[in-house]
Design goal:
By secondary structure, the chain is an alpha+beta fold. Among the domains are: about 240 residues, Catalase core domain (Catalase HpII,  Chain A, domain 1); about 80 residues, Hemocyanin, N-terminal domain; about 130 residues, Rossmann fold (3-Layer(aba) Sandwich). The chain is about 25% helix and about 15% strand. Strands 1, 2, 3, 4, 5, 6, 7, 8, 11 and 12 form a 10-stranded antiparallel β-sheet that branches. Strand 18, helix 15 and strand 19 form a beta-alpha-beta unit. Helix 3 runs antiparallel to helix 4. The longest helix is centred in the middle third of the chain and has 17 residues. The radius of gyration is 28 Å and the shape is globular. Keywords: Heme, Hydrogen peroxide, Iron, Metal-binding, Oxidoreductase, Peroxidase.
């Protein structure tokens, strides 16, 4: 973990990590900063002693007149704000979004349409169910929320790492979360869905089937936030300069590919490093391996029925396969700076699906309509009032003159005598802005219908898309999905709930239901699987593609007699690929001296396999049978990670039982580097999967 860095107190920063100046109240001081070298009270009075309260005599009573004591303790008493009801555990980063200009034909929003325009952003990743103190690697949906500080105002694209949602209407969302959260009597289980009430809810609301399958697949446990897709979930309306409209769905595609943890890795990380994902993100940015995504859109005609090839574009539980409508890249996101203060930025950042800019409008998606209310409403309690957009992390990078006044957390000092519009007292200022002045002018559209509590019949198909998703997965992903269902339902106590879920799965796919039933020791129900669209290869994570190694971690097992020259050469080769080498030895300290000296960064006591993407054993590495080192090697073997060894290092692998596909050995480090790099580009040694998982798939009953 990089050491904490003391800010430059002599010259408070005037520019945010995204390069955009913060507005300063006095013209020369960053309002975010705590400046100066002297301890002061909140109102700037210098304090001579912050360790002892004012007392009447050294052993006498504490005096109420000690304002510093009162202010210090009172602030501490109130320094916690309510955590988010969902997405409580998160990690964030600053960055920049660059438009490539290709969206100019579909939207007038410069953030997307103006070629080369760079817009500062703040992105927050999160889990959904767990509290702030839960583990990063729980099986769960991940939030992928992006705040664009555009010249026209703030645009919040509030998405997830899955393109579909559990429910079709916002009115069901409180029920979903109540069912998924820990039981109200014991407050367990924390940050997982493996319990009765969750499976009771999703088996009774079969619209959740599609999202549940995504969650039970490897998508539910990402390898890293840097290796995670993001989706806007809903259909949005785009408006161009000619006032022509289309419907779009947003997708973030990571440069490093889409990769996941194995279930064993996720469990190990929960114990050895509950902060695994937030540490991975921060360390990568600190090392200069800036995470990168392409923003793409699927574009659909804005027809009266808002359907496409029989798929309802207003149904958030459905997707349009990319083979039917390809994703068009419209820009690139790069995260290049970590937060300066977690609370001020990552915790206080507040998103709102209702924050859009001219050129982006809403559709009648009932879940989106409800979210537009909910996100605004929740900040009033969580952040203490209506002025939450004035917090530095939420402050627009565009001029604001809203005629709003007063309220909790008012940080501005409004001028003028007429906080209303229209007016003549302040010479009519501020004035409305029309289309030509960049105003948010909604394109007219017809709205009519009977007032009913119903949904369209096109929302009724709950199974064909889950069936398509299952059919699209690779064999190893199918195995992992079966294991996930078997684990989760194995934690369910009510037999009737298990049986109901199996009936749902039998409607999706007979093989899926049979395998899960076999793992539970239950008979497979008879079902008539639905017809579904052709399999979509884009939905599978394992597709034989190779990806960059930026930020990947490699362990090299070494010791006092190891080939340090070879380790130095390996480090240089991995540095050139953007990967990072960590020396792993029985004890800490330094190995050798001179140019090839190596600092021991991990020991057999502190390292576990989940931290590394590959393991290398150096020539001359100790072969003393250290059980912890052997466990790490055997874990990495099960987790399908590449291995390499040169010289006598091959004997260490052999004695630990490490052999087969993805294990590269040679006389020197030069003999194994290229094979190691190629294997890491595939993320895992998938050829080994059948050997590792063959015994894990339960036979059908």
């Amino acid at each position: 973990m990089p050491p904490a860095r003391k800010p430059d107190q002599s010259a408070p920063a005037q520019v945010s990590p995204t390069g955009v100046p913060f507005e300063a109240a006095d013209g020369d001081r960053d309002p975010r900063a705590q400046a100066g070298d002297t301890v002061t009270s909140p109102n700037g009075v210098r304090i001579p002693d912050t360790d002892h309260a004012l007392k009447a005599g050294r052993r006498g009573p504490t005096l109420l007149e000690d304002f510093h004591l009162r202010e210090k303790v009172s602030h501490f008493d109130h320094e916690r704000i309510p955590e988010r009801a969902v997405h409580a555990r998160g990690a964030g980063a600053h960055g920049v979004f660059t438009a490539n200009g290709s969206a100019a034909s579909i939207t007038r929003a410069p953030v997307l349409a103006e070629e080369g325009l760079q817009t500062p952003v703040f992105v927050r990743f999160s889990t959904v169910l767990g509290s702030r103190g839960s583990a990063d690697t729980a099986r769960d949906t991940r939030g992928f929320a992006t705040k664009f500080y555009t010249k026209e105002g703030t645009w919040d694209l509030v998405g997830n790492n899955m393109p579909v949602f559990f429910v079709q209407e916002a009115i069901k969302f409180p029920d979903l979360i109540h069912a998924a959260k820990p039981s109200p009597d014991r407050e367990i289980p924390q940050a997982q869905s493996a319990h009765d009430s969750f499976w009771d809810f999703v088996s009774l609301h079969t619209e959740a089937t599609h999202h549940v399958l995504w969650n039970m697949s490897d998508r539910g446990i990402p390898r890293s936030y840097r290796m995670m897709e993001g989706f806007g979930v809903h259909s949005f309306r785009m408006v161009n300069q000619a006032r022509e409209t289309v419907l779009v769905q947003f997708k973030w595609t990571p440069k490093l590919g889409v990769h996941s943890l194995t279930w064993e890795e996720a469990q190990l990380a929960m114990g050895t490093d509950p902060d695994f994902h937030r540490r991975d993100l921060a360390d990568a940015i600190e090392a200069g391996a800036f995470p990168e995504w392409e923003l793409g859109v699927q574009v659909f005609p804005d027809t009266e029925d808002q359907m496409f090839e029989g798929i309802d574009l207003l149904d958030p539980t459905k997707i349009v396969p990319e083979e039917m409508v390809p994703v068009q890249t419209i820009g690139t996101l790069v995260l290049n700076a970590n937060p300066t203060n977690y609370f001020s930025e990552t915790e206080q950042v507040a998103f709102n699906t209702g924050h859009v800019v001219p050129g982006i409008e809403f559709t009648n998606d009932p879940l989106l309509q409800g979210r537009n209310f909910s996100y605004q409403d929740t900040q009033l309690t969580r952040l203490g009032g209506p002025n939450w957009t004035q917090l530095p992390i939420n402050r627009p990078h565009a001029p604001v003159n809203d005629d709003h006044r007063d309220g909790f957390m008012q940080q501005g000092v409004p001028t003028g005598q007429a906080p209303y519009s229209p007016n003549t007292v302040d010479d009519g200022s501020p004035q409305p802005a029309g289309w030509d002045e960049g105003g948010y002018v909604v394109v007219p559209r017809k709205v009519e219908g009977e007032v009913v509590r119903e949904v369209a019949s096109s929302f009724d198909d709950h199974f064909s898309q889950p069936a398509m998703f299952w059919a699209s997965l690779s064999d190893v992903e199918k195995t992992h999905t079966v294991e996930a269902y078997t684990f989760e339902l194995g934690k369910v106590y009510e037999q009737a709930i298990k049986e109901r879920v199996l009936v749902v799965l039998a409607t999706v796919d007979t093989e899926l239901a049979s395998l899960v039933a076999g793992g539970l020791g239950l008979p497979a129900p008879e079902g008539t699987p639905v017809e579904h669209l052709p399999a979509s290869p884009a939905l599978a994570q394992v597709r034989g593609e190779s990806f960059p190694l930026d930020g990947r971690q490699v362990a090299v097992v070494a010791g006092p007699d190891a080939d340090l020259t070879g380790i130095a050469a390996l480090r240089r080769a991995l540095d050139a690929e953007g990967a990072q080498l960590k020396v792993l030895a029985p004890r800490g300290g330094v190995l050798g001296s001179g140019e090839d000296q190596q600092v021991v960064e991990r020991t057999n006591l502190t390292a576990r396999s989940v931290e590394f993407d590959a393991v290398v054993v150096a020539d001359g590495a100790p072969d003393d049978g250290d059980i912890k080192a052997v466990v790490l090697l055997q874990e990495a073997l099960r987790q399908l990670k590449p291995f390499a060894a040169w010289g006598s290092g091959a004997d260490v692998l052999t004695s630990a039982g490490v052999s087969g596909p993805g294990v590269f050995t040679g006389a020197s480090v030069d003999d194994v580097v290229s094979d190691l790099v190629a294997a890491m580009g595939q993320h895992r040694v998938w050829e080994r999967a059948e050997l590792v998982t063959a015994s894990a798939v339960p036979p059908a009953v």
